[in-house]
Design brief:
Elements (H helix, E strand, L loop, with lengths): L14 E3 L4 E2 L35 E4 L8 E2 L10 E2 L2 E3 L3 E4 L14
């Protein structure tokens, strides 16, 4: 994952929510994109290869916290059913390759 941070007490990457950002809030105007956190890594150099190496049509989704209308750092989103809090999101990103055009893209590396 990219655009994340870690802390000494967390064993997984953390996405920070600030400036009224939200995750999976229905009707939310500042929902962050899961695609901005998915990292394509070169198997040899471990460098970020970017999305150009992925086939078109892949969809990304941040996991909505159980029994919530999403998470938001904007108190106004409480009226949309969101759990309002500042700080950390440590949920999952779901990446769906079944919607991709050609998973054997020529830019892919064996």
């Amino acid at each position: 994952m990219k655009n994340t941070y870690t802390t000494s007490d967390a064993d997984k990457p953390i996405i920070g929510l600030s400036n009224n950002q939200s995750i999976e809030v229905t009707g939310g105007t500042n929902n962050i994109s899961a695609a901005d956190y998915w990292k394509v890594v070169d198997t040899e150099t471990k460098e970020d290869r970017g999305k150009a190496y992925l086939p078109e049509g892949i969809t990304y989704e941040l996991e909505r916290p159980k029994d919530s209308g999403g998470i938001s750092s904007n108190p106004a989103d409480a009226s949309k059913g969101a759990t309002v809090r500042m700080g950390h999101y440590t949920g999952k990103i779901k990446v769906n390759f079944t919607t991709a055009s050609d998973i054997n893209d020529n830019n892919s590396k064996d």
